[in-house]
Amino acid sequence: MHYNYLPATGVTNIEQLALLLTGWGISFGIVFDDDSAGRRVFNSIKKTLYQDNDVEARKNIYKIKDCDGIEDLFSQNDFYKVLLQHNSFTASTKQNSELAKDLRISKPVIAFDFYLRVKDGRLIKADLEVATLTKFKALMTSINTIVANQQ
To answer: What is the model's pLDDT at position 1?
Structure first.
């Protein structure tokens, strides 16, 4: 399967992108964080593009379960050591997405840096904890299901 990722740079941009892609006749899938903003936009797109049909909408839209932000896919250790590149951290009861907001981290900057390190081979699968890999595997399985629904 071949597909491309289009970063929306904010949940508020997703509906407009979905409408544009629909107008251009381009198949697409959407992945949302499972926070209040993601649920709100999901419901709006479901109403606008899928006539409020939850079953049809979920064929093309996936909400990452128990994930208020993409950072929550990482274990807390990987969040600090891999994403933020800090050698040590103090465990927190907050989710990574909350910590990212508290630290005023730029998601696009962190994501692009992560991408470059993976692309250049400076970051490999073995550098990540099993918990992180498990969550990403589940996400990729869901994305592959969305792509398969469109063929």
So the answer is: 59
| Count of CB atoms situated within 10 Å of the CB of 24 | 8
Give just the sign of the alpha carbon dihedral 35, 131, 147, 107: positive
Low-confidence residues of the chain: pLDDT under 50: none
Q: Are 73 and 136 in contact, with CB atoms under 8 Å apart?
A: yes
Give the start-to-end residue ranges of the domains of the chain.
11-64, 70-134
**pLDDT attached to residue 92:** 85
Reading the block at residue 24, the tokens are: 């251009």
Give phi and psi for 125, each to the nearest 5: -50, -40
Q: Which helix (H) or strand (E) holds 31?
A: strand 30-33
> At CA 82, angle to CA 78 and CA 83, rounded to 5?
100
Q: Residue 139 has which token pair?
A: 């996400």
- 0.70 cut: is pTM over it? yes
Per-residue pLDDT tens over the stretch 124-151: 999 999 999 999 999 999 999 998 888 7
Phi, psi dihedral angles at 64 (to 5 degrees): -70, 110
Is residue 8 within a helix (H) or strand (E), and if so which, with residue range?
none
